[in-house]
Amino acid sequence: MDPMQGLSLGQFAEMFRKLQQNHSEEYYSFHLGELAPGLVGPLITSALASWSPMASPNLYIDIFMQWKDILEKPQQRGTLEGNSMGIQPYDSLLWHTWVPVLRTCVSVWNIRDCEPVINLLEIWKPLLPQWILDNILDQLIMPRISTEVNNWNPLTDTVPIHYWIHPWIPLLNTRLNENVFPIIQEKLGAALTNWHPSDRSAKLMLKPWKDALPEGSFAAFLLVHIVPKLQLCMQSLAINPHQQHLDAWNWVMDWKDMLSVLNLTSILDKYFFPRWLQTLAMWLNHNPDYNQVTEWYSGWKRMLSDELLVQPSIKDNFHKALEMMNRAVTTGQQPGAKEFVSYLTNIETNAPPPPPPPRVETMVEAVRAATQIPQGFKDLLAKRCEERGILFVPVLNKYYEAKQVYRLGSNGVQVYFDRNVVFYSQNNCSWLPVSLNRLLDMA
């Protein structure tokens, strides 16, 4: 009768510990630890027969921790399985008992329900030799993931792929980079063939991959599949100072958190600013209202982030616009135009404000200028002040360039009108052009 028959796992564990303690030299000299897989393996296999690893991942972990402590000693590098480097008895025990159960479990596992398997591997990872973990990942997990990714269709699948791929990144990082992510990028690129920037679903689909793909890979993907379509979209933007529709602009700028500053700068420099400057040039040739021109300039500038505004090419384009406006007002005769543009230029260049415009030298010129003031503009301001309860009265015996000066509100604001331009001075400072809405806000 076999004296070992009928012993429990606990009894075997106690026996091996006593051999190590009481007969240490013989135990290690004769590699007695190599007997363990054959002796306790059948008992462990029997215990694991009814185990459902995903449902109860912590079950039996104490048994393997116990045998890892007993068998995994530096002195007992075994020669099982014909491994020239030697294989630990503990490794052999795992390979013949635990791995077959996991193999069966993974073969019927729903790939898209990744959390149970990841949780199981994370729990058991401290007990798994690296070569066994690598074998599980390479031979059991990766083939099933690759098959599922090959069958995935980004246009018809309702569950985004990052839901069931990204959780694997800590365990499969390099493997995914080399074998899975290229397939995903190819499929995403194909799905974007007929995409238009007005469809925001593409950004929602791609955003989770910004930090998941290898460095530079995501940027390269955008350059191939997204940037050309954004370029065409920006090129289609109709620039109309009198009725500006910003849909195309907003569709492009919606990608500012995905594109690099340099990529976005390139789009603006090549596909927006040349036409923007052309529009400005045409506008300046038709004696425009320079209040509107400067507001238009400032409005576009406010639509760009600080990161974009400091880019040399963008700064250069805005500088060209200022130069065009300054050249235009030097040849024009519109009252107040030079002051508007000069004021804007000084703000842009952080220069001190310009001196007040020269006074009209003769009474004849003053009278002629005064007769050209459109009464409707002053009446409009008076009506707005009345609606808001703001004081608006002429200042007795006070004129500027033969134009009546008015007191506005109670904050020391005074105004006068020159054609369709209103100038203001606050607390006896220089006279500056101002828009009607801003003037009302200051009152």
UniProtKB/TrEMBL annotation:
Pfam annotation, one family: GCFC
Domain GCF C-terminal stretches: 9-280
Superkingdom of the organism of origin: Eukaryota
Record-level GO BP terms: spliceosomal complex disassembly
Example of a GO cellular component annotation carried by this entry: U2-type post-mRNA release spliceosomal complex
Coiled coil stretches, renumbered: none
Protein name as catalogued: GCF C-terminal domain-containing protein
